[in-house]
Structures are given as structure tokens and as C-alpha cells.
Amino acid sequence: MKVTSNAARLVSQVLAGEVWPALADRHGFRVGPDGQPFSLPGMGGVTLGVHCGDPATGYAADHLEPGASVRHRDPGANMALQFLTCVGNQVRVESGPAAGAVGHVIGQHAYVLADFAGADMAGITTGDQVTVIATGQGLTLAQHPAVTVKNCSPALLDGLPGGTRADGRLEVHVAATVPAEAVGAGAGMVSEYANTDLMGAYAGLDEDLSLGLEGLRIGDIVALEDADHRYGRGYRPGYLTIGVISTGQCMLFGHGPGPSTLLTGPADAFHVVTDTDANLASWLHGGQEWSR
Amino acid sequence: MSELRPVAMNLLGVAEHPELGGTPYRVDEDGRSYVPAGDGGIVLGPRLGESVFARDADHAAPGACLVHPDQDARHALTAYSCIGNQVVVRTGHAAGARGAVLGQRGEQGRVIAWLAPEDLARMRPSDQVAVRACGQGWRPPGFPGDVTVLNLDPAALEVLPVTAGDEDGTVTAGVRMTVPSKLAGNGIGRPSVGWDLDLQLGAPFRPEDGTAGLAPEDLLLGDLVAVSDLDARYNMGFRRGWLTVGVLVHGASPLPGHGPGITPILTGPAGALRARPDGAAHAGLTEAALQRLASTEL
């Protein structure tokens, strides 16, 4: 993105995490939109075979978290890991057969979600230790004071197309625009943690549930209409939030593929360009480090 | 299937003490810090029938919030307690006082117990309150099969402006106003038993989002409100052509994504469940009605 930022003034912090197990309870089943019971994988652990650019929905999964789901054992350290880690930050595996592999953060979902190349991912499992080089919180755009940046690494900002336009607005490329009706679980939560589940993306279910979002892909950059994420996630007419789809298929009602917040501000501060290539996969080449 | 009779359970609630973290501040939707007063515990001042925006407070509910020290028991207390259930204070200065459940709140779970102001004023955190929980799973006779009733004591239906058995078989609820599902905030995607739904009715509210001629300030604690395109049978979520009706049980919140909260009581397809906007003439759940429910000998 061709934009002036304070990236040179930001620091990086070295954080530690652990690939967290998938969790269940002895009752097993949860409930879908029509009361259908389900017990499906997707959250926690290492979810294989779904990467940026792949469809977000259409899997027999619930709260699908692509790649490795990472937490810290200590509650305070975990919140630091969750709040400070940004999309695009590097993640290095420290233990297990995949030690040394480097991937990237694609979002947050009460876990830090890290995508690695498929061959590396195959060697990662629950309990593996990882290091996150956290940088990005505090990023500001001097020429766009109305736009708040969060959860966005300077490397990702560089990689995004668009930038400052002659008319002063910030050009942003998005793969899809999301109506306010789609905002599900995550409303009212802070916008540096977890993400905004989008309803209306239940592939294979009835028309009355659809908001036309079944085509979302993991890694898609999306625009949320009438959403103000500056101080949390709330409905505000005339505001716009730009996020990246970091989680996929849900069966749990009121949930769905979710964007992690990247940019938010008054809608008239943005110039939105619909661009089917607006996906992390376009700038994240097989897990190689991005150029700065 | 023959009608199943509801059962009642005596559950124990404990009057909550509010909790804050190491910093007192929260951040409102415009980025201003504030200290949250009234978010849980025993709250004196708010009354049913006053505007949900009448107080400078955060999620303040008119009554005592009941919890349980064991988290699983707290979830059960919240999920099984229903609007109109009788409560009896068992310990402390208000021992013997009777009230009724006004609604529930989410996250870890809270039951909002309404008590007469003079009784409420004699309570303190940790007072024990028995709740006669009854209503989940109840199907009122004469209701169409696709309208679900939840969070409602069987005795409470008759004190509310809800009628069944209309000529066309529908259920009609008198409401203050109907709001669109895009105003649904915290509570969306969460279970409709044991979690309220906050309505994002803050400053940016637009006239077309509500009933003509009414402002958000016209919403009163105890009002019935309808939310269009919302299915609350299990988790709450968007479903085109559905309707959910709830009772406003707590006041506004400065937090983005939060606001006055409803405990849902009716949900169904709009063809079977109808909301009748009564505007200024609406009367929802009143203190007099709760007093009657509280003093009924069972």
C-alpha cells in the first residue's frame, strides 16, 4: 500500500506460544441453525489442508481455524500474545519435527492463527512451541488520521494494494463487501482479540440463512459496512471496517467465517475497490518471508 | 407428541458483588474512558418503566443480580431461571422478602431478580436467594408448533400483551417497537437461554431503524421489543423472515456493540408470530405484574 506510516518507529517484541489442543467436553454435541446436533473438528490443534486462497466454507467443520492455533499457558502472557500479535507477523516453530519452519500469522480467533506451508504443517502438532515476532500495534497513517490501523503488520501494510489517492482517501482492495446484518458472535468484543463471525455463509443450508457470503475464501480482505472497530466492535452507520477472513466454516448458529480487523474509520475516508485477488495468498508466497 | 408438563426446581442464587480488573476504565464507542457503575450486583435506582437511557451507568438492571460460586451451577441457574419465577431472600436483612425473576444476562451468567425497592435496599452481596425455576421447555396450549416460547414462567404469559389463537392461528405480541437484526450486538451467536441480547441503540440510531415517531429514549425497562430476521430457538442468529420478541431487562451501555438488553421470550417465523407495534400505548412487563407473580401462593 502506497501510504506514509510510522512503521520505522515501531518496535518488535519476541513472544512465545504453544500449539494448543482442540478442546471438547463430555457432552460432545453442539447445535446448528435448525437444531441439528453436530460434533465437528476445526478449532484448536493443527488444521490441515486449508490455506489462504482456499474456500472458507464447504467443510465438515465448525469454527475452522486454518493452520496452527497458538496460545500461551499463562493467562496474562496469553493476553499479551493475543493483543500484540498482528496479521503478517512471522511465526517460527521451536520444537518437534518441524522446528525451524517459518510461517505467518493470518489472524486471531482467541488463538493466534499461523499458516505454514503444507509440508511444514504436517510436522506440527499440539504442544509444539513457537516464537512470534510481534509488530504492528500502534501503526498509524499520518495522512489518514480518521483511519485506525490495528492487528496489521507493517509488512502486510506494504503488501496491500492501494494507498493514498489524489483526493486524500485511502484506496483499499477488497474481495467482498459484508452487510451489517451478517455480523454475528464477536459483536461487542474488543477488536484486538478473536474476530467477527459472519452469518449468512452457511454453505449447503437453506436460502433463508444466506446473505450471499458462501464464496468467501480464507485470507480474503473484506469490507464490513456500518461497522466501527476503533474501540471494540460495534454497529455505527457510515463507518467501514476492513478485515481479513481468518477462520472458516461454522455449523454453530450465529457464527461463521470471521475477519480479523485491520483498518477502521468513517466510510468516506476510504475508496473501496472490489478486487478478487484481494487475498493474503496474493502477497504471501508459499510461506516465504515478505519483502519490506 | 403429547404436551410435556414443565417441572419446577428450587435453585440457589447468591447476590453478586460487582467485579473490576486492575484498572477501573472501560472505553466507550467514541474512545472516551469511563468507570462502569451498575454493571451487575445489587443496583438501586433503576425502575421498570423508566427509559433504558435514564441512567449514566453500564448495563444497569433494576434489581439484584444472582450468581452461584460454582461456574457450572451458575450456568444452570441462568439457563433454567425464567421471567416471572418466584424468588425468596433466605439470608440477611431482607430475609423473607419475595420477588420475581426479571430476566437473565450472559457471559458467565446472571439472573436479574426484581424485588420491591424497600426490600432491595436491605440486601447486600452474598445474600442467598432461592429461585423457583420453571418454564424452559413449556409449550403454552393453543400455540402454533413453530412458535417457540422460552425463558418464561407459565404464570407470566398472562401478564404480558401476548395473544394466541387469533383467527389465522398466529401469535401476536404487543411491542414498543420493532428493530432490525443489524442492531443485535453482544448476545448474537450465543444461546438464547442464559444470555440476553444487547441492542445497539446508541447515538448513531437512525429513524428508519425503529418505529416511526419513537426514539431510543422511548424504550422503557420492561418493554417488549421485536427484532426482525432473528431466530432465537437455540443460539441467536440471522434468519430471514423470522421474528424474536424479548423483554428489556437492563439499561444502556457505553461499550461499542452493547446496549439495552432483551431476554428473548418468543421466536418463530413471521407468518406465525406477529409483532404489533403499540408505540406510546405499549405496556410490557410492569412492577405491578411482577409483584402479583411474586405474591401468588403456589
Which features would summarize this protein structure in a list?
heterodimer, A: 292 residues, mainly beta, Thrombin, subunit H, tm1086 (SG structure) fold, 2 domains, six-stranded antiparallel barrel, five-stranded mixed beta sheet, 17 strands, 7% helix, 30% strand, globular, B: 298 residues, six-stranded mixed beta sheet
Describe this entry's structure for a reader.
The complex is a heterodimer of chains A (292) and B (298). Chain A is mainly beta and 292 residues long. Chain A has 2 domains: 7-134, Thrombin, subunit H (Beta Barrel); 148-282, 3-layer Sandwich (tm1086 (SG structure) fold), CATH 2.102.30.10. In chain A, 7% of the residues lie in helices and 30% in strands. A 6-stranded antiparallel barrel of chain A has the order 1-5-8-7-6-9. In chain A, strands 10-16-15-14-13 form a 5-stranded mixed sheet, with no helix packed on it. In chain A, strand 7 and strand 8 form a beta hairpin. The N and C termini of chain A lie close together (11 Å). The model of chain A is unreliable at 285-292 (pLDDT under 50). Chain B is mainly beta. Chain B has 2 domains: 8-134, Thrombin, subunit H; 148-288, 3-layer Sandwich (tm1086 (SG structure) fold). Chain B contains 3 helices and 18 strands. Chain B has helices spanning 71-80, 117-120, 287-295, and strands at residues 8-15, 26-27, 33-34, 42-43, 63-67, 86-89, 98-105, 110-114, 128-134, 148-149, 162-163, 171-175, 177-179, 197-198, 224-231, 237-250, 261-269, 273-277. In chain B, strand 7 and strand 8 (110-114) form a beta hairpin. The longest helix of chain B is centred in the N-terminal third of the chain and has 10 residues, at 71-80. The radius of gyration of chain B is 18 Å and the shape is globular. The mean pLDDT of chain B is 94. The chains are: A mainly beta (292), B mainly beta (298). The A-B interface holds A 31-33, 35, 179-189, 197, 199-200, 207-211, 226, 228, 230-238, 252-255 and B 27-31, 180-190, 198, 200, 202, 204, 206, 229, 231, 233-242, 255-258.
